[in-house]
Amino acid sequence: MKSNRPKYKQIIDAAVVIIAENGYHQAQVSKIAKQAKVADGTIYLYFKNKEDILISLFQEKMGYFVEQIELEISGKESAQDKLLVLIKKHFQILSDDVHLAVVTQLELRQSNKELRLRINDVLRGYLNLIDSIIIEGKETGAFLPDLSVKLARQMIFGTIDETATTWVMNDQKYSLPKQAEAVHQLLLGGCACKN
């Protein structure tokens, strides 16, 4: 219920900016409160601590990723087209919000093991979406029938993730969305049936 409240979203959006600009470990709750234009104490009405803010931020943003991708792939016929939409949308969302890109590609990786395990739980919905595209591709004959879903998922997610991380590390000097077609072709080379 709290996620439907405006201040919750204000705090999440502020946390993205503050964590991106200062790093997770240097991102003080007071800075997040100031960015969100709320009192420091207001943060604790919605979140237990800074770690809870980071997990909630990731839940919100990954939920948005999955929602947007599902919306766009619903009109696509083939698994190959759905995969292209997933890649394009992933890159576009990060390109549209560089602060979010920095947080997801760099800051989330610097967290402790327990926090990373919680983040992996949140990532499950996104990985399930990739799995569904792979399974559909196998069932329709678009992808190799003996393709390992787990291995293909790791390859797809890893390639998308590394491409986005490289873009962030290079200070966004080029268009991330323009990389989508090439990434798609490379991934299809490993998954698709040869005609």
From TrEMBL:
<dbReference type="InterPro" id="IPR036271">
    <property type="entry name" value="Tet_transcr_reg_TetR-rel_C_sf"/>
</dbReference>
<feature type="DNA-binding region" description="H-T-H motif">
    <location>
        <begin position="28"/>
        <end position="47"/>
    </location>
</feature>
<dbReference type="Pfam" id="PF00440">
    <property type="entry name" value="TetR_N"/>
</dbReference>
<feature type="domain" description="HTH tetR-type">
    <location>
        <begin position="5"/>
        <end position="65"/>
    </location>
</feature>
<dbReference type="InterPro" id="IPR050624">
    <property type="entry name" value="HTH-type_Tx_Regulator"/>
</dbReference>
<dbReference type="InterPro" id="IPR009057">
    <property type="entry name" value="Homeodomain-like_sf"/>
</dbReference>
<dbReference type="GO" id="GO:0003677">
    <property type="term" value="F:DNA binding"/>
</dbReference>
<dbReference type="InterPro" id="IPR013570">
    <property type="entry name" value="Tscrpt_reg_YsiA_C"/>
</dbReference>
<dbReference type="Pfam" id="PF08359">
    <property type="entry name" value="TetR_C_4"/>
</dbReference>
<keyword id="KW-0238">DNA-binding</keyword>
<dbReference type="InterPro" id="IPR001647">
    <property type="entry name" value="HTH_TetR"/>
</dbReference>
<protein>
    <submittedName>
        <fullName>TetR/AcrR family transcriptional regulator</fullName>
    </submittedName>
</protein>
<keyword id="KW-0678">Repressor</keyword>
